[in-house]
Amino acid sequence: MDAGGHAAAPTLPDVLPEPKQRGRVMGFVHRHPTIVLGGSVVALMVLIAIFAPFLATVDPTALAPAKRTRPPSELYWFGTDMLGRDVYSRVLYGSRVSLTVGFSVALCASVIGTTIGLIAGFTRWVDAVVMRVMDGLMSIPAILLAIALMALTRASMKNVIIAITVAEFPRVCRLVRGVVLSLREQPYVEAAIASGTRVPVIIWKHILPNTLAPLMVQATFICASAMIAEATLSFLGAGTPPIIPSWGNIMAEGRALWQVKPYIVFFPAIFLCITVLAVNMLGDGLRDALDPRLAKRL
Amino acid sequence: MLAYFLRRVLATIPVVLMVALFVFSLLYIAPGDPAAIIAGDQASPEDVERIRASLGLDRPFVVRFAEWLWQVIHGDLGTSIFTNLSVAHMISQRIEPTVSLMALTLILSLSIAIPMGVIAAWKHGTLIDRVVMMVAVFGYSTPVFVVGYLLAYVFALQLDWLPVQGFTSITEGVVPFLRNLILPSVALGLIYMALIARITRATMLDVLSQDYVRTAKAKGVEQKGILFVHALKNAAVPIVTVVGIGFATLIGGAVVTESVFAIPGLGRLTVDAILRRDYPVIQGVVLLFSFTYVLVNLAVDLLYTVFDPRIRY
How far is CA B36 from CA A152, A161, B176, in A? Predict the structure, then answer.
């Protein structure tokens, strides 16, 4: 059959080079450098937090009054504070607090905000009430709201997480409600409503998947601002209890001496900045990857 | 125009009431006995009883809220537990440094960030653009107190150009006033500048691709005229919006900045109140700052009509 008079197409000489095939991994790195860079730094910080007991040179809470305020040296990489505690070990352990607070707040705020946002987007009378409440909550500057809440409760990491979550979740609520309102007008949702699909099923199958992308981006930014908020609260003396070494606490303790021993403040500050920067880069990258239209503009 | 103004002003009333309700009810939402919380750790049982009586916990919540609101409207924010002075009086003593700090920060941020954003958009894709955006990302990833210490370390301790801490009233001369306030303002303004520069660049990019900009170019308007007259005016609405929303960051940052630079303003008052658990003072300051924030955003909404006369809703 193939030989039956049909002229086979002559094989073309290979003038075009093979299109350069990048591996899947390298291709991703090339397209989304900020996600990769931000993600790697965050991953590194998570590893530091998990393996802090092995990386630290001494117990971060061990007092050694004889070795007070030693400058950074071979023995004490980041120096020692006014109670002789090793700043390097304390900074490593501090990553646990920042990451726990950042991730917990991002998770709690997303879950609470999404739930309320979905209900508000679908029920008109709830929407009217909830959105007024959210307007009110968002009119109180987040850090002040957290301060007021912390002033009422005992200092603990759980309370810090709750206080920052209360200050942050209205943003998620607003975002999700906005997405729901615009999705409700989509033909496929109208079709689902018309064909008698129950509301919970519509929310689960049609609405929720479409909120995930903006939600993920928002959650990353909330994680970053929660880390800053935790450090700020601790720095002001209204956050994580002073006995737990958190970056904010180390800086708060270094405050009294910062003019003569600036390294006590600067090492935790550098770790905090790098972590927050990485999380923000991850968020920027995710936003660009998930919403290419916006990426072109911003 | 007047109808729009009135409607916007009326629309803020429920928000203000909501804020007041929150600030008032925080004390009752928190776990534990409100009287014991207010009295603090060192209070005797008699103190707790006295405070319980003054709070009027036996009466309905709505009645207490209404009474409290009535007092607030008349400028009575309660009495500090620690100093026994009226909260309104304590606030009035501390307000000048905070207002000075915020005003200078606002002026600095706007006059640096907007040109930065405009230039980044104009030189889109070049090195300048990338540097501006990098600075912006760093700006909103660095906590205010870190920037504050860094600036104070370099410019006050190492170079010895400016005082490390403190505040001088403007009535004692403009130069000492500025010398004390310039570092705190830059520290506080960095995150604000980052926000404004980003939004300015983004909206300017949008505006610069519009037909009327091309027309302006075609009829020979010079570059500066196009950028700062034709384009910037049309980009004003999103920029002003971010200036309004970012004001919350500015308020929160002021509390921290005042601690770093030992400025005796409302922020210091807040921090002292936290450490002493002086709840009426915290309540008063939060209320004042929140109202200011609402008013700033009301002003922003009203400004829309100035920048864009098409807005009518």
Answer: 10, 23, 45
Q: Which two tokens stand for residue A157?
A: 């990491």
- Closest residue by Cα to residue B201 from B133, B141, B249: B133
Q: Which of A89-103, A180-194, A277-291, B225-239 has the least mean pLDDT?
A: B225-239
- Domain B90-307: give its CATH architecture: Orthogonal Bundle (1.10)
Q: Is B285 on the interface with A (CB under 8 A)?
A: yes
The reply to whether B174 touches chain A by the CB within 8 Å rule is no
pLDDT in tens, B17-60: 888 888 888 777 766 677 777 776 667 777 777 777 777 666 77
Report the gap between the CA of B149 and the closest CA in chain A (Å): 8
A237 close to B275: Cβ distance less than 8 angstroms: yes
Of residues A287, A236, A288, A268, the one with CA closest to residue A98:
A268
**pLDDT tens across A264-285, in order?**
788 888 888 899 989 988 888 8
What are the pLDDT digits (tens) for B191-246?
889 888 888 888 888 887 778 778 887 887 777 777 777 777 778 888 888 888 88
* Cα four-point dihedral sign B257, B148, A161, A121: positive
